[in-house]
TrEMBL record, chain A:
InterPro entries: AstE_AspA_cat
Domain called Succinylglutamate desuccinylase/Aspartoacylase catalytic: residue spans: 69-161
Species per Swiss-Prot/TrEMBL record: Natronolimnohabitans innermongolicus JCM 12255
GO molecular function, one term: metal ion binding
Keywords, sorted A to Z: Hydrolase, Metal-binding, Zinc
Cofactor or coenzyme needed: Zn(2+)
Superkingdom, taxonomy of origin: Archaea
Acetylation among keywords: no
Protein name, UniProt field: Deacylase-like protein
UniProtKB/TrEMBL annotation, chain B:
Entry keyword set: Membrane, Transmembrane, Transmembrane helix
Name this polypeptide is given: Uncharacterized protein
Transmembrane segments: 28-49, 56-76, 82-103
Highest taxon above the source species: Archaea
């Protein structure tokens, strides 16, 4: 290679590394600190339940009660077993402290699928097992739905990731917030763009889509049957490493809790 | 950099490319071509390696790669996205040659004018 070519390449490399570090998205430290800090209103108390106890599907549910009254939010990870970012974040959220209300978390909803690191468990795609006007379609889905009915959430958030990006890649749905008619998916998408998507990754900006209430997805069923505000969050595998997917999923979770009054610090830092 | 200098250097490096017109031969490996190629590929490759290393400089490569995968996914779904590296590198080189050709033409014009 000629010297000028080397120089040009070297210059680009140094420039890219420098601007990359300098312009790294800021996140939202204040919001995440509020989620992780116990706060001064007194200790939250955590209880656990075994869902589908003594079956292959047995999985743990965590219920974290804040010192003051407020809404109940349910967070699901691992409805698809190979979508690790949602599972990781849901596990992390079991250590969060809501300021008000009750935070209910199921990190490994389809535990067989999670253990096999596959999208679907033994009875197929769990997120198609909640049809309108019918019983849930599998034993796992019925066990999960029992827990949802018992906790009667005001908000449901289901954490996912797709291989591609909605709107860019025809068959994929990544970087999107699907939400029930009453839920504020638009505000969630805006806050995520502000916190986590730099301007020079325009394809990765979040899209919010109001979902019709008639589908067989868990968040749709919760919206339909219980009047909950339902969200399905999708990040993407496309050009994002594990750490970045986890950070976007973590911020989505914290923003949903803040939009619905479980966390006090809401606005972007 | 003087015109003579450019020519001398290109003559020695491009002996393996006989049949091509001078301007095209220069565009194929000229400094503007190399710089453009580096700009399209290097910052994007850094971001691919570690998303925290994405930067404004990666935007051109990011757009080219993203649009490439969008077209590919519409035409032939189910390909893994890393498979798009080969067409991305080829496409980046194509864009670079066009830029390099424009640059050579521009240099030639300025030189013509200054020798009047
Ligand atoms: Zn999924």
């Amino acid at each position: 290679m000629r010297r000028r070519t080397l120089l040009a390449t070297g210059g680009v490399l140094v420039g890219a590394a420098t601007t990359g570090v300098v312009s790294d998205p800021t996140g939202n430290d204040r919001l995440l600190a509020a989620a992780r800090d116990p706060g001064d209103g007194g200790e939250a108390s955590t209880t656990t339940e075994r869902l589908l106890a003594d079956t292959d599907h047995e999985t743990t549910l965590y219920a974290i009660d804040a010192p003051s009254d407020g809404p109940t939010a349910m967070i699901f990870g691992g409805v698809h077993g190979d979508e690790r970012s949602g599972i990781d974040v849901a596990h992390e959220v079991t250590e969060w402290y809501p300021d008000a209300g009750t935070l209910v978390v199921v990190p490994e909803t389809d535990r067989v699928a999670v253990e096999n690191d596959e999208r679907e468990g033994v009875d197929g795609d769990l997120n198609r097992h909640f049809p309108a006007d019918e019983e849930p379609r599998s034993a796992l889905a019925r066990g999960v739905w029992d827990a949802v009915e018992r906790h009667d959430p005001d908000v449901v958030l289901d954490l996912h990731r797709s291989l591609g990006i909605l709107g860019l890649h025809q068959e994929y749905v990544g970087q999107a917030v699907f939400h029930s008619p009453g839920a504020d998916g638009e505000a969630l998408a805006d806050r995520l763009d502000d916190d986590a998507v730099p301007w020079y990754l325009p394809f990765h900006r979040f899209t919010s889509l109001e979902s019709n209430a008639s589908g067989p997805l868990l968040f749709q069923h919760a919206a339909r049957e219980l009047g909950a505000d339902g969200y399905l969050f999708e990040t993407t595998e496309f050009l994002l490493d594990r750490e970045t997917k986890v950070e976007m999923t973590r911020l989505a979770t914290a923003h949903v809790l803040s939009l619905h009054g479980l966390l006090e610090a809401g606005e972007s830092a | 950099m003087s015109r003579d200098n450019l020519l001398a250097e290109d003559d020695s490096t491009l002996r393996g490319w006989p049949g091509l017109p001078d301007s095209l031969r220069r565009a194929a490996t000229g400094p503007a071509t190399a710089a453009t190629f580096a700009l399209l590929v290097v910052p994007f490759a850094l971001g691919w390696y570690d998303a925290a290393l994405f930067s404004p400089l990666a935007l051109p490569g990011y757009l080219l790669f993203g649009i490439g995968t969008a077209i590919g996914n519409a035409v032939a779904p189910r390909f893994e996205f890393w498979l798009y590296w080969a067409p991305f590198l080829a496409g980046s080189y194509g864009v670079s040659v066009i830029v390099g050709y424009g640059y050579e033409r521009w240099i030639a014009r300025t030189d013509d004018r200054s020798s009047l």
